[in-house]
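Quick illustration, no need to memorize.
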Amino acid sequence: MASIRKWLLSGLLVIVPLTITLLVLQWVLNFLDQTLLILPDSWQPDKLLGFHIPGFGVLLALGSLLLVGAVASNFVGRKLVGWWDNLLHRIPIVRSIYSGVKQVSDTLFSESGNAFRKAVLIQWPREGAWTIAFVTGVPGGDAANYLQGEYLSIYVPTTPNPTGGYFIMLKASDCIELKMSVDEALKYIVSMGVVVPHGVAPSAPKPVNPIQSS
């Protein structure tokens, strides 16, 4: 019985990650294939070729992103993007949604942004209890006027779903920078501490240097 239990657990450790990975990939392919709906009916690959090509929507989405990125990177493209932003910011309701999403995406994907660039160790949700969090920037707006000293904006993800969490502002001296990448920290969080980052030797705690706001 002990051997059977061992074999069963070993089989689960192999099959479960593989199955979930395949299901996620299938969902992504099916979702991106919906981009084919933007093509005219006569241009649909299924009709042109006479058979369905799974994942063709991925190529279309990737090509569209590359094309838009190439256009937006030149002088004329930047002017068009600026004109488009100004237009959307003039439309009620739309501007509130668009501006919020735009700020978040600019922060996350901008090469000059500081969001999720550092993994830190903080005491949360009480003193003596520690968790891993991510630096997202520095406090701004009116909130910064009430914080004395150097503070950091911190995102504390939940486990095992890191897309939910808490936004808090902590003193920089209360945040210990970890010698692990953001990816390693996310794996550590999602696995609930099971997948421990390798190759990181224990060292003395190091406070995080405050991020200079732009």
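Residues 43-73 form one domain.
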